[in-house]
Every structure is written in structure tokens, then in C-alpha cells.
Amino acid sequence: MTANSQIPPPPWQRLPDRQARRRREPISQEAIVSAAVRLLDREGLAALSMRRLAEELGTGAASLYWHVGSKDGLLDLVLDQVIGEGQVPDPDPARWREQLKDVARAQRRASLRHPYIVRISIGRIPMGPNALRYSERVLAILRAGGLPPRLAVQGYLLLIATVNGFTIDETGVTDGAPAGTGDSAGPDSAGPGDPASAQDAANMARDYIASLPRDLFPTMTGLADEFAFADADERFEMLIDIFVDGLARRAAANAAT
Amino acid sequence: MTANSQIPPPPWQRLPDRQARRRREPISQEAIVSAAVRLLDREGLAALSMRRLAEELGTGAASLYWHVGSKDGLLDLVLDQVIGEGQVPDPDPARWREQLKDVARAQRRASLRHPYIVRISIGRIPMGPNALRYSERVLAILRAGGLPPRLAVQGYLLLIATVNGFTIDETGVTDGAPAGTGDSAGPDSAGPGDPASAQDAANMARDYIASLPRDLFPTMTGLADEFAFADADERFEMLIDIFVDGLARRAAANAAT
DNA sequence: GCCCATGATAGAACACTGTTCGACAAGCGA
DNA sequence: TCGCTTGTCGAACAGTGTTCTATCATGGGC
Predict the structure, then answer these.
(1) B103 and B113 in contact (C-beta within 8 Å)?
(2) Interacting residues of B60 by C-beta distance below 8 A, sequence separation 6+
């Protein structure tokens, strides 16, 4: 808090061999969280170990514990950081249903951009600063739409759970790294969870179901072709249509009572 | 390879208790799966390790691999076994919405009876014999209700995902064992995920939210009391009401088209 | 200008995990 | 009786999260 901290040091004065050790970043909590997110984005949830992360930061595993307490604490911070990426529009009462769908779509996109996040969020109640700001803005939309208090809060919580239930399936076939063994193979080279391999899996399911004995599985064999329908975007639109429609109906019924 | 191996050991020298070991069950795949389910029910997901399970069966960890291939393979079998507990009624076209809700309620009850199952099911497409029989019967209900093929299949899959999204929150606060450290403390002694501690957590959330600055969080502070509403049964009924209503609406719209 | 408390860094170790390897034993057909 | 298949399992490997402890650097007080 002295005046010294305001004065930037001259660029030629490199103080001791700090550079060698701390060359990347002075290993603050934020630096650790950012590095963790980068590592997770790059190599997936299974690749995140304390040793690996420390190596990434040019330090030792035990040092991280001074800043984040435990791996669980680190994941709490990672979750809040990713939630902080989300943008929620100002409420427009006439368009609350479409705005709510947009929120759901944005949540799904975030879960696809960081496929590990939905698994991290299991068993974690997001209460970090970013999560609070996010909730405030979504709830403002629902209240502006005229939903009564209970339905607004429960509708918000249930929507999150519903979207998570969907994206778990979408991102969860394996927990592998995105595409390849670590080289820069590009983000679209047939990793697990991408549309192409999802379609392959759906085709395999269809063929298997179609091959079942018709007398034991009359309904399923008749519906086999539908199991090949794996357009995730359309499936998701179907889900939030069903949910928001049902929610609006219940809101109308509540208002009438 | 010496002659020593030919000499029978004296009868009083009982080398490991072969009899005592294999008396339970001759360690078949089914015996392993049953023991795994028992262990999971008793001590939770975190307690299931191959060594621990082998000990439970009076054998060595490596032996299990002969029957189940890997821990992942074992979990596949556990999932199918639990799905096999479910009972689905014969279709009654006039009551398809109520029947579908019953299916959802039964799935939730199974997830509460085996709190680990929803976490196991992540990233696993249930295609075992029991899962197939189960799907056949649920789809029969939806088809009897008049839903077109696509809406029947997608409605079924989305319902499962929705219920999973809900029960993940319900069972997922921690992954601890049910009640106590292993002694017979009874199944209702304030483990994580039971109604009492859920209500406590909800009260804490309400108090925290109510304490936030009103100018930054006008909506949330006004809704703080609603965050104390943690009646899981009622929340679940709300969810399946919303979902089934929305599904029925979409079915009616489809039929009109 | 020195000196020590304090913030920060890590090496080493602990108790685990899933999995594999290879040696071993029992049952059985030839 | 031989050989072979089926099954068992102790030991080891590479990895995990976490803790203990020793060490270092630095800033404030004397």
C-alpha cells in the first residue's frame, strides 16, 4: 500500500532469478485457475491433476495447495470462472419466454465449449460472485415475465437442472480429451461428443434395436429408425420448447388462481 | 517344480481356508455384481474399489478382472441390474400422462434408493437386457397415448435426461456413504442428501442471499425466502408437471398438423 | 544495517487407486 | 498320465490427492 507499489519498475531491471522460477505468472490464485481452465479446455477433465497443473505453471504440486486449499476448492473456482463468461440480456417483459430459451441455449453452448464443466458442477452449488450476478439477471427476466416468486425461483433452478441433464448426455459419452493425443489436430477432428461420432453411435443403436426379436420388442423394433435421429440442436430445441411451454402454462394457471 | 509339490500337506496345517473362502458363492459374474450393489448401497460410490470388493467376496482383486473385464464393465452391469428393478405398467391409452409421470417417479425413487446410480449412468448408454425390456414398456405407453414416433422416442429420452438432471442435484451434494462411518446407525441419521440436511442447506442459502447488498441484487434479495423452499417431492412434481404438460401440448400440435 | 517473523515454495512420503503380469492350481478330455 | 483350458491371485507399476517438513526470500521493526 506504499507509493512504491504504484511505480512500475524499469523494464531493464530484472530482479534476481525470479524470472527463472516465476517467469510465467507469480502463481496467484487467479493464475492457477486460468491455467486450470486452459488445461481442461485443451486436454479434458481426466488430464487435470495437481501435479500436471503445477508442472504447467513451472512449480511444484504442493505449492498450489497454499492458494486453492484442495482440488475441490480449485474446481469451485473453475466453475465460477466459467459461469462468469455468460452474458444475460436485460429483461424484456414481452419476450421473457424467448429470453429464457436464449439463456438455456447459452448455458448449453458453454457446456459444449467446456465439456468438463457439467461434470464439475455435479454436487456443487454455484455461489461464487459470478454465479450470483448470473442468477440475479436470469431471475430478473422471469420476474419481469410476470411469474410469481415461487415459480420464478423453481423454474430457474429446474431449467438449469434440465439443461444439465441434456448436456451430460451430449458431452458425456467419454471424458477424453478433445481430439487426438495432444498435438494440434484442430478442434473438429472426430473427438467423442462431436456430431459425426454421435450420429455413428445413433446408427449403431438403430441397427442393434432393429435386429432385436420382434415378438419381444414390438414397439422398439417399430421405432428403430427414430433412434437414429441424433440432431442434437433440434433435440435441444424440442426440450426447451417443452419446458418453457409447460412453465408458461403453469404460470398462467397460477395467475388465474 | 520340485517333488515337494507332490507331497500332500499334513491335515492340521490348513493352508489358507479354501473352504472358508469359496463358501459364499463360487465368484461368478452375477455374484460380483450383486456384491457390488450391496457394497454401493451400504457405503456409497467412493467406497467401491476393486480391492475392497474383492475383500468383500473373500478373494483377490485380480480375480475380478477375469469376470468383469474392468471396473467400467462392472459399472455397466451394475447399472443394468438396478434398471432391472423397475416395473412399468401395461399401457392404458386414456391415462398415458399419469402413467408417464409414474415412470418418472419410479425412476426418481430408484435413484434415491441407490444414490450412486445416476452418477454411474453418466456417459453410459444403457443397452443391457434389462434396459431394453424397460425401454420397450415405456415406449409402449407413449405410443398407446397417441404420440407420433419421433415425439415418443425423443420424449422418452428427454424425460430420462430431465429426471437425471433433477436427481443429480438431489443426490449429489456429496458422494459420501449413507449415514455414519459404517456402524449400524440406521438409514435416517442425517446423511447428506436427506430432507433435513437439504433444508438446512436451503436455509443457509436463503440467509446468505438475504444478506447480499440490495442495490446490486434487487431481484434475488426479494426472492430470498423462496430459496428456502426445498420440498424435493413438490419440486419434482412441479418438474414432471411442466414436462408432461409441455409434451402433451406438443403432441396435440403435431397431431393437428 | 541487521534480524527475525512471515509468506511462499517444493521435495519427499503416505495411503490410496485401476490394471497387468506371471506363476500357480484344479478339473477334464484323451 | 499327460496336456490344456479355466480360473485364481500375490506382486508390481504408474498414477492419484494430500500432508509434513525444510527451506528460501523478503519486508518491517529495532
Answers:
(1) no
(2) B54
CA dist B111 and B166 (Å) reads 10
DSSP per-residue codes, B187-211: TTS--TTSHHHHHHHHHHHHHHHHT
Q: How many Å does it take to go from CA B171 to C1' C12?
A: 38
Task: Work out the widest C-alpha separation in chain A, in whole angstroms.
Answer: 84
Using the predicted structure, report yes or no on whether residue A74 has a pLDDT greater than 70.
Answer: yes
Show residues of chain A in contact with B238, CB under 8 Å: 154, 158, 250
Taking alpha carbons only, the member of B161, B190, B166, B162 closest to residue B176 is B190
Q: Which CATH number fits domain A88-256: 2.60.40.10, 2.70.50.60, 3.40.50.300, 1.10.357.10?
A: 1.10.357.10
Statement: the CB of B71 is under 7 Å from strand C: yes
Does the domain formed by B16-69 have CATH 1.20.1540.10? no
Q: How far apart are CA A35 and CA A43, in angstroms?
A: 12
How confident is the model over A126-162, as pLDDT tens digits? 999 999 999 999 999 999 999 999 999 999 999 999 9
Burial status of residue A28 (CB atoms within 10 A of its CB: 0-12, 13-18, 19 or more): exposed
Question: Do A139 and B229 make contact, defined as CB atoms within 8 angstroms?
Answer: no
Contact A64, A53 (CB under 8 A): yes
Chain-chain contact of A165 with B168 (C-beta, under 8 angstroms): yes
Residue B20 has a pLDDT of 41
Protein-covered nucleotides on strand D (Cβ within 7 A): 7-12, 15-21, 25-26, 28
Residue A173 CB-density burial (10 A; 0-12 exposed, 13-18 middle, 19+ buried): middle
Say which CATH class A11-69 falls into.
mainly alpha
Q: What topology is assigned to B93-183+190-256 in CATH?
A: Tetracycline Repressor; domain 2 (1.10.357)
Interface test with B, best of A226, A231, A236, A237 (most B CBs within 10 A): A226
